[in-house]
């Protein structure tokens, strides 16, 4: 039997690959000639937030950008939106071409989880808090697929959005705890002009829900502004904004340290919110400084 022919790789062209072994072989060959590999994992339905990740990936010198598009079933609970999650591969490939991505990895479910696969990553205590309290097992699913993607692609760098802040913290934790050889880079959240964080799930919102959804980012801004007054004032200010939108059903509003430990009284902190607007669940967060005295002269 003759071995399957190796797919050609042409610098500057878009290669759409679905088989993990093909991706591993090409990225290994590129690394062997000194090229760095940058991975941008996504679930598709690409928007300006994803494009920002890709642009930052491309700006790292001497790299080939790999974007993965895979709606990972392992991170969806039984009552979540796995079946109706937006899928638009052709449009996504156009976006990747425009952003000069060179490899798009689009595996099928069976490529990632062939029959018999059963070992997963456990995300630890932080994975059971915040979003993990509502989405049981979600972060085990995220870390398992990210671990697999890292093993397939062996990226030197991987970029993730701060919009999914708990996910970013847990991926950094996994890389440190499991001695993985990839540098994880967080990218600030890209927003609509009114503050709403871009998210693939925003397409689910009706026009009136879209108006209500701005309450999340508005609450975070109000909370961040109150940082120097202390934790209680941060939460109070954010809650006041949310209370004006009873149609926005809050899952959690929490002030934490940047590593998601207990909130500090001074210095950097993170304010995180999750809420349902109609049937759509949205998340958002912001960095803030706690307990800073007012600037001199103010
Ligand atoms: N507004 C945004 N700004 C920056 N990065 C983002 C933004 N939205 C998503 N990302 C990042 O893009 C990557 C892929 O995310 P994903 O494909 O799940 O998109 P999403 O818009 O977050 O979708 P969902 O609506 O399902 O949460 C993640 O690292 C995520 O944090
Ligand atoms: C990181 C990720 C691609 C893993 O499926 C997903 O959780 C996402 O899109 O944020
Ligand atoms: N953007 C995080 C992926 C998820 O919500 O499942």
TrEMBL record:
Active site: 50 (proton donor)
GO BP, one annotated term: pantothenate biosynthetic process
Pathway this chain belongs to: Cofactor biosynthesis; (R)-pantothenate biosynthesis; (R)-pantothenate from (R)-pantoate and beta-alanine: step 1/1
Keyword RNA-binding: no
Domain of life according to the entry: Bacteria
Residue numbers binding ATP: 43-50, 161-164, 190, 198-201
Catalytic activity: (R)-pantoate + beta-alanine + ATP = (R)-pantothenate + AMP + diphosphate + H(+)
Binding site for beta-alanine: 75
Compartments it resides in: Cytoplasm
Group of enzyme by EC: ligase
SUPFAM superfamilies: Nucleotidylyl transferase
A single Gene Ontology CC term: cytosol
Annotated GO MF terms: ATP binding; pantoate-beta-alanine ligase activity
EC number: 6.3.2.1
Gene3D superfamilies, per the entry: HUPs, Pantoate-beta-alanine ligase, C-terminal domain
Alphabetical keyword list: ATP-binding, Cytoplasm, Ligase, Nucleotide-binding, Pantothenate biosynthesis
Residue positions binding (R)-pantoate: 75, 167
Keyword Ribosomal protein annotated: no
InterPro entries given in the database record: Pantoate_ligase, Pantoate_ligase_C, Rossmann-like_a/b/a_fold
HAMAP family for this protein: PanC
Assembly information from the UniProt record: Homodimer.
Function: Catalyzes the condensation of pantoate with beta-alanine in an ATP-dependent reaction via a pantoyl-adenylate intermediate.
Family from the record: Belongs to the pantothenate synthetase family.
Name recorded for this polypeptide: Pantothenate synthetase
Phylogenetic lineage: Bacteria, Bacillati, Actinomycetota, Actinomycetes, Pseudonocardiales
Name of the gene this protein is made from: panC
């Amino acid at each position: 039997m003759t071995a399957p022919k190796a797919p050609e790789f042409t610098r500057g062209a878009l290669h759409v690959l679905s088989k993990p072994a093909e991706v591993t072989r090409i990225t290994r060959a590129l690394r062997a000639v000194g090229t760095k590999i940058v991975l941008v994992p996504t679930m598709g339905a690409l928007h300006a937030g994803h494009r920002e990740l890709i642009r930052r990936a491309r700006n790292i010198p001497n790299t080939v950008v790999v974007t993965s598009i895979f709606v990972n079933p392992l991170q969806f609970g039984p009552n979540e939106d796995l079946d109706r999650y937006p899928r638009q591969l052709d449009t996504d490939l156009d976006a990747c071409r425009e952003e000069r991505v060179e490899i798009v990895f689009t595996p099928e479910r069976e490529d990632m989880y062939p029959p018999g696969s059963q070992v997963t990553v456990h995300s630890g205590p932080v994975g059971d808090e915040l979003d993990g309290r509502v989405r049981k097992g979600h972060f085990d699913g995220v870390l398992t697929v990210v671990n697999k993607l890292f093993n397939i692609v062996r990226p030197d760098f991987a970029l993730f959005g701060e919009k999914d802040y708990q996910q970013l913290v847990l991926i950094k934790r996994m890389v440190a705890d499991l001695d993985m050889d990839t540098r994880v880079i967080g990218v600030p959240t890209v927003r609509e002009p009114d503050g709403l964080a871009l998210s693939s799930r925003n397409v689910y919102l009706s026009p009136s829900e879209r108006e209500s959804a701005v309450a999340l980012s508005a609450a975070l801004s109000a909370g961040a502004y109150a940082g120097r007054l202390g934790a209680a004032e941060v939460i109070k200010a954010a809650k006041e904004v949310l209370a004006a939108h009873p149609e926005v059903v809050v899952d959690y509003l929490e002030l934490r340290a940047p590593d998601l430990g207990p909130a500090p009284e001074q210095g950097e902190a993170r304010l995180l919110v999750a809420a349902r607007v109609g049937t759509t669940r949205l998340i958002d967060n912001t960095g803030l400084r706690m307990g800073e005295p007012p600037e001199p002269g103010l």
